[in-house]
Amino acid sequence: MGVPLVQVRDIAMKYHSPEGEILALDGVTLDVDKGDFISVVGPSGCGKSTLLNIIAGLVRPTRGVVTIDGRPVEGVSSLVGYMPQTDQLFEWRTVWKNAILGLEVQNKLTAEKKEFVQSLLARYGLWEFRNAFPRQLSGGMRQRAALIRTLATDPQILLLDEAFSALDYQTRLVVSDEVKDIIVQERKTAILVTHDIAEAISMADKVAVLTRRPGRIKAVHDIVLTCAERTPIKCREAPEFRDYFNAIWKELDIHAG
Amino acid sequence: MQVKDAAMSPEHRAYLRSLRRKRRNIAAARVLLLVALLLLWEVGANLGWVNPFITSQPSGIVRTIANLYRDGELFRHIGVTVYETVVGFTLGTLLGTAIAVVLWWWEGLAKVLEPYLVVLNSLPKISLGPIIIVWIGSGSAAIIVMALLVSVVVTILGVYSGFAQVHPDRIKLLRSFGASKGQILLKAILPGSIPTVVSALKINVGLSWVGVIVGEFLVSKAGLGYLAVYGGQVFRLNLVMTSVIILAIAAALMYQAVVFLEKLFTRWQQ
């Protein structure tokens, strides 16, 4: 195995406010290989999203370094596509105009790229809806449109920041199936941050568990599930699922109240 | 869900019919109310229940309008006032939005200016009238500045708070594409704030009428506000009532025009 695509080395992050300083992350080290789908789970407030923002180059860490494809991250890069918690489709733009937003911003809206976005929309069932406005779409379609917007700039790595947390349970299951399928088809590397253990296990090849603040990697599990179809919904029924769930639950050390 | 005509049940048909009847009744009642009030006013004035010298009367108002029209004065006065109002609220809205953009761009400046804006917002702008007249003179320009001043501060505050409501994730998304601050402004902040700006426009229409009419009370030689004040001074109540009624109609029409604009600009919401 070659050099990991993403190398997170000894990342620490401090936040300052008038009330004092908070150490959100302290010494996070993590490798993500090309083509991997890795979930990062942790209790709320453990700095999961901060970690994602640092990998995306949106926030600079207090200490440590992230390298992508061997180069240290010093700002946003077109190698990385970021998916926020809610789809954030622009209501006044049609599906098509939303899908090309990133290309427009990067001034890369060539005929070739347009064709690429057209093919993405066609492949994932949104071509007929290219002239529709976001409010005319179902929750699942919106999520797909948001994913295509991210894929349009052809990033190597997708960062999903609690990307499904705003959806209701049923939609969420369907959407995670669809998103997983698209990410596999497009051969992307993905890092999903979530507080939902079941979602983390069902979608990923690896699950990294973060400790409570200050966040540190407590364990990394290789997920091997025996299920006929490798889709998140089906894999929730795999016999190994419960064992992973229980192990991670224990590691998270969640106390009610 | 709409039910096709053929599949409509008798109950539903009856329901629709009663709905239509209700709507018709309300429209009829509205017209009747107006006619009754006008009749009562006219008859009352003719029979001496009220003194038409003080209250004016509908036939007198119609006569006044006809006279103004014959002299070519009617549309001159309406034109002057409408022009001042439209220019006033358009400039007020544009300038207010532009200042809000500046404040968004330089957050430090917004923090510094905040208390001043709060004070300016609570100040009755009409009180600046005498200052404006001294500085700008007693022409149309002074009246437009009045109309502008009345609306500009409200616009700054409303639009700026609209900018602040744009979801931080949306800005983060654009930044992840490498967007510059200017691109964030043009792609997310401004288009996302169009509903806020249009609703500011709706408020500003009303405010600018106030600014213009008070301005005309103070200085002008033409316009509906001038007519009303002049009519009052020479005790021609027909003239005062005429200008008030035309004003009411013009203001309502202008408001409807802005509502139409709003629909045009926010089609994606429907």
Structure report:
- The complex is a heterodimer of chains A (257) and B (270).
- Chain A is an alpha/beta fold and 257 residues long.
- Chain A has a domain at 1-79 and 159-168 and 189-257: P-loop containing nucleotide triphosphate hydrolases (Rossmann fold), CATH 3.40.50.300.
- Chain A contains nine helices and ten strands.
- A six-stranded mixed sheet of chain A has the order 6-7-8-3-9-10, with helices on both faces.
- In chain A, strand 4 and strand 5 form a beta hairpin.
- The N and C termini of chain A lie far apart (44 Å).
- The mean pLDDT of chain B is 91.
- Chain B folds into two domains: 1-50; 65-269, MetI-like fold, CATH 1.10.3720.10.
- Chain B starts with 9 loop residues before the first helix and ends in a 5-residue tail after the last helix.
- Chain A binds chain B through residues 53, 56, 58, 76, 78, 80-82, 84-86, 88, 90-93, 101-102, 104-106, 133, 135, 153, and chain B through 167, 169-170, 172-179, 183, 187-188, 191-192, 194, 266, 268-269.
In CATH's first tier, which class of the domain at 1-79 and 159-168 and 189-257 in chain A applies?
Alpha Beta
Largest sheet of chain A: 6 strands, mixed
CATH topology of the largest domain in chain B: MetI-like fold
CATH architecture of the domain at 1-79 and 159-168 and 189-257 in chain A: 3-Layer(aba) Sandwich
Number of helices of chain A: 9
Order of helices and strands of chain B: HHHHHHHHHHHH
Note the gap between the termini of chain B.
Answer: 17 Å
Please state the overall shape of chain B, judged from the principal axes of the Cα atoms. Answer: flat
Radius of gyration of chain A: 18 Å
Q: Structural class, from helix and strand content of chain A? A: alpha/beta
